[in-house]
C-alpha cells in the first residue's frame, strides 16, 4: 500500500528502472512522475501502468494514499492485452462506483499477495488490464512546462518567462496548464520553488539570503513571508527543526 502524507521534495529522488510492469492506483492525493522524460500527473481515482525497464523519477507528491505494485508478463494468465504492447505509460481515470470497485479490488489483491493466492492475483490483474486503454497523458506544452519547472539545475522563473521559453503567450500557458493538470502555472512554480527552498535550507552552509536568491526571490523578506505562508514556519525555524 501507498501512504505518503505531506509534501515531498520529489526532485531529490533518483531515477530508477524496474524490470517489470509497474503500476499505482491513487485513492487520494496526487503525484507527478517523469517516465523516460515524459511528465505524468496522477491524481485521485487514477491508475497508471508503466511498461518494463522505463526510467521512473518521482518529482513531487502530496498526501498520497493508494496502492503500488509490479508484475512480469510471464506471471499473467493472458498477456494479449493491448496495453501490454505499448511503449509509453498509460493513465486511466475511474470515477464514482468504478473508483470504489477498483479500490476494493486493489485492496483484495494486496491481501492475496500476502496470502500467496496466485489464482486471485492473476484473475485480479486480468480484470484491471481489461479496463485499461492505451492513450497519452499530458499535452506537449504542459509536459514541457513541468519539465522546466522541476529542473533541479534551473532557478524557478515567472509564468511569462516560461511562456517565452516555450514560445507561447502567458495566457495560453496558464489556460493549457490549468486544463491539463487542474493547477495553475503559478501553483506549479510555487511548488517547485518551495521544494527547492526546503532542500537548500537543509544545508546550514547556505545563508538564507542566498536560498531566497537561488529560488528566484531576491527579496529575503518576501521569501520569508512566502515560506511561512506555505509551511507555517519561517525559514530559520524550518532550518532549526522547530
List key phrases describing it.
single chain, 242 residues, alpha+beta, Jelly Rolls, Arc Repressor Mutant, subunit A, 2 domains, seven-stranded antiparallel beta sheet, 9 helices, 43% helix, elongated
* The level-1 CATH class of the largest domain: Mainly Beta
Gross geometry: elongated
Radius of gyration: 20 Å
| Number of beta-strand segments | 7
Helix-strand makeup class: alpha+beta
Helix content estimate: 40-55%
CATH homologous superfamily name of the largest domain? Jelly Rolls
Distance between the termini: 31 Å
* Total separate domains: 2
Strand content: 15-25%
Low-confidence sequence ranges:
none
Quickly describe the structure:
With 242 residues, the chain is α+β, with helices and mostly antiparallel strands. Helices cover 43% and strands 23% of the residues.
Show the helix and strand layout.
Blueprint: E1 2-8, E2 16-17, E3 21-35, E4 38-43, E5 46-50, E6 55-71, E7 90-93, H1 97-115, H2 118-129, H3 140-149, H4 159-166, H5 170-181, H6 185-201, H7 208-214, H8 220-231, H9 235-240
Helix pairs in contact: 1-2, 4-5
Describe this structure in words.
By secondary structure, this protein is an alpha+beta fold. Helix content is 43%, strand content 23%. Strands 1, 2, 3, 4, 5, 6 and 7 form a seven-stranded antiparallel β-sheet that branches. The longest helix is centred in the middle third of the chain and has 19 residues, at 97-115. The radius of gyration is 20 Å and the shape is elongated. The model has no long low-confidence stretch (mean pLDDT 88).
